[in-house]
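From the shared-data thread, chain only:
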Amino acid sequence: MNHARNLLLPVFFLLFLVACSGGHDASRSILSEPEVSVTTVPPVQTRISLVEAAAWDYQSRTRDVFADHRPQDIECDRDEGWLIEDDEIEVRTDVCNYLSLTQESLLNIPAGSRLEFALSHGDLVYRENSSAHAALSVGGVIVWEQEIAIPSEGAIYREDIELEFEVAQRDSIEIHLHNHGSNAWTIHGLEAVVSGEFNSDAFCPAYDSTYEAIQATVFAQHGCASSLCHSAQNAAGELDLSPENSYANLVDVVSAGSEDLRVAPRKPSDSFLYQKLAAKTQPGSYDIAGSPMPSGGEPVSSGQLEAMRLWIEAGAPESGSVGDTLGRGEDEIERLLGVCLPEPDAVNVIPLDPPATDEGVQFRMPAHKVPAEEERELCFAVYEDFRDDIPNKYMDAAREVFYVQGSEVREDPFTHHNVLLYSAVPLELIHDESFGTWSCAGGDISGQVCEPTDRNSCGDNGRCRSELKDSIACRGYGPGTGLLDTVSQINQFSVQGGSEIEGFYEEIPTHGIFYWNSHAFNLTTEDAMHNVWRNLSFANDKRYESERITFSPHIYAGTGTAPFTKKEVCREYTLEQGDALLMLSSHTHKRGELFTMALKGQEDDPFYVSKNYDEPLEMNFDPPWEFNDANVDSRTLVYCAVYNNGVNPDGTANLDTVTRLSVKPSRSFCRPTACTKGNIGASCDGSEDHASCDSSPGANNGFCDACPISPGVTSDDEMFILLGIKAGDYAGQVARFQPGFAIVTPEQDQTFTAGSAITVKLEMSNFTLVPPLPHNSHGGHDNGVDSAADGGDHGAVDSGHYHIYLNTEDDSAEHLTDYLPEVQFPLPDDIGPGQHYLRITLRAPDHHALGIEQRVYFTIANGL
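Structure, as C-alpha cells:
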C-alpha cells in the first residue's frame, strides 16, 4: 500500500496529551489530600489509524474474501463509483454494483486490542424490498459484517470490534459493500486502540514503486551506491547506482564486463547484475566475469535476491508496483524486502529495439487488450513482407525464404506464452470471412478498417490485424487451408529462430500470412495492453538442419495432485541413435515448482534443474551432445516435475496457491474436494458441500473450494512437456558439410628426379578456394599457426587456400601458399634420393589452420 510517512506526528501528539493529562491529575491529588493514598492509574491507550485513506485499491477476484458475493461483471470505477475525500471513502451505489477495497495493516496489533470501525449511509431506497451487505475482514478473517434492510433511514455505525488474534504488519484489510439502488455510503475510518505506548517501529517503510524499494533496501543498505563503489564520483565498472541515475544505467544497458545486459527485462538469468549478486548469495550459481557483488560487504539476502528476480521477471519497470505470477500481488515482494508497496500495476516492458538491417528482422505483435483479472488466449492474423528489407545473401534465389540463426523475444510480464506461426494460407484468401474485418491496432487511427497488404495502412505506429478470436494454439483458425488441427502439425509452422550454435539455421518465409497465438493473464485490477517483439538474426553459416522437440504425450501427467499436497511425476524420452542435442528446456504451469532431467540410471544426479516455471532454464549444448550408442538406455532421458498444489515450505496449507474453483478462469473447471474456510484442509464433496467444512457442526463458516490439479491450457491448469532442439543424423550432416579435398596428382609413391617440379592437382569438397589475406591480417598468425594464444576457435570456415610443406610437420617452416586447384611444386636440386612426402593443409583466408590435411609420398630416383 502507498502508506503516508507523516502518520507518526498525530500519534505522538495523542501520546503527549494523554501523558500530560495524567501527570496533572496526579499532582493535584497529592496537594489536596493530606493522607497518603495509592491511586490506580488506568493503562495508557493509544488510538491510531490502521489504514491510510489514499492507499485503498481494488481487491482482485482471486484474493477477495467476499468472493461468494461477487457478481460476474463489476461496474465501480474509481472517482465515479467510489472516491476518497477528506480521508473518507464515499460510495455511490447507482454507479457501483460491488465494492471490495483492500490495503495492508500499517502496524502490528496484539490480540485483545480493539478496532473502531465507522461508516454511515443516507436513506436507503430501492424499487422493491432488498438488503445491503457491509463487511470488514482483517488478515483474511471476517471480523464484522451486517445485512442492512432496504428501505431504511440513514444511519451511522460505530462498531467496536475486539480482535481475538494478532494482526501482523502488512496483513490484508478488506472493506466490502454492495446493495441495490441509488444510495450513498461513507466509510469514515478504521482505528486500532492499543494498550501501552505505541511503538513507531511497527510502521513498515513505504515506497511508491518496487524499484524505489530495491534502491533503498538493496543498493543503499549494501553500500552499492557509496562513494567507494558505484557512485556518481566513483562509478566502478562504469556503473553509477546513485538514486537519480541507477535505473538509466541498469535497464536495457550492456554491461562493461559482459556481453549481457545489466538488467535484461523479463530475463533475470540473462541479467549481469542479477548474476553478480546471485554469485555471492548463492556461490556457484553463476560463472561470472570479475568478482561477485557486493565486493566488499555481506551478500544480499536470499529474500532481497528473490525480490530482484521477481522485479526483473515483471519487466523491470522504473515506476509502479509489480506482483508475482502466482497471484499474490505485491505481498511477496513486500515480505522479501520488509516494505509496504502499492497494489500491483499492469506494467509494460521496455520495447525491444529492432536489429540492424544487415543483422535481422523484427516481428512486432499488434498490441491487444487484456482485461483486469482475466486470462485470454487469442489468435489473429497479420501480413508480413520482408523481401525488400533482407539482404539478398540471406535469402534463397527466389526470395521466398530467409535464413535465421537465433532469436530474441521480449514480452510484457503478463505473457503466459506467445507463438508466431506461418499460416501457409495463400494470399488470395487474406480477405476470407473467417478473418473478419481487418483493423488498425495502436497508432493514431486505432480501430479503423485497414488493408493488410499495405504496410502504411495504419500509419507509423499502428499495425493492421484481423479480428481477435478466442482460440487455443490457433487450432482450426483461418480459412481451413493453412494450419492443421493438431498441436504436432502446428509446430512445424512455428517461427522460432532455431539454435544459436554456429552452423545451425532455420528457414523462414519472407512474406505471407502469419498468425499470432497470444496467451496472457492479467492478475492486476486494471486493464492492460499486451505487447510482444520477436527479433530473428540472419544466419551467415548454413550447414546443419535442426528440429524442435515438443514432447507432449504425457502433457497432463500432473493432473489429480490433491489439494494441499505435492506430487512428483516422471516420464522418459528416447533420442534416436545419431541424434545430437542442441538445447533442452521445459514447460509447466504455475504449480510446477521443480523440473529435472537425468540420463536413465543416473536419476540421483540430474544434469538439468529448473525451479521457475515462468522462466524455465534453457540449457544449450555447444558442441552438440551426441548420442551414438546402440544401447537405448544410454540415449534415454528421464524428465520429472514436482507439482505443488498449495503447500508452504513448512508443510502448512497455502490458500493463495491451492487450486480453487471460485477463482478458476472461465475456460477451466475443477470439482472441490477440500475446504478453504472453517476446517481448512478437511475433505468435502463438491461445491455445494460447505457443511463438511464448518469448524464445528452448524457453525456455517465452511467453504468447499479447493480442487485437485486439473488438465487444461489455462495457467491455472497444468502441463508436463519436455522442450528442446536436436539435430538428426548429426555425424552424417557433419560429414556432408565438412570441408575436405582429394589429391588427384601426384599419385602415391610416384617417382621424380631432383630439381624437377611436381604437378599438384586438388579437388575440393565443401570448400571454396579464394586468395589469401596478407600475413598478420588476423593478428598473431605469422606462420599460419592456430594457437591458444590466438583464441583457437575461429568458427566454421568454408573458403580459403592451402599450404604445401615438404618433409615437415612444422607449420612455421618454409611452404608454398596457393589458391588454384592446380599448381607446380618445385623440388630442390639437392634433395636426396629415397622416400619423401608433401603435407597439404587447408587454411582460412587469414592463414589459420582448419585441421584438415593430407600427405602424399613420393620417391626421388638415385642419380646413379
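The CA atoms of residues 369 and 529 lie 5 Å apart.
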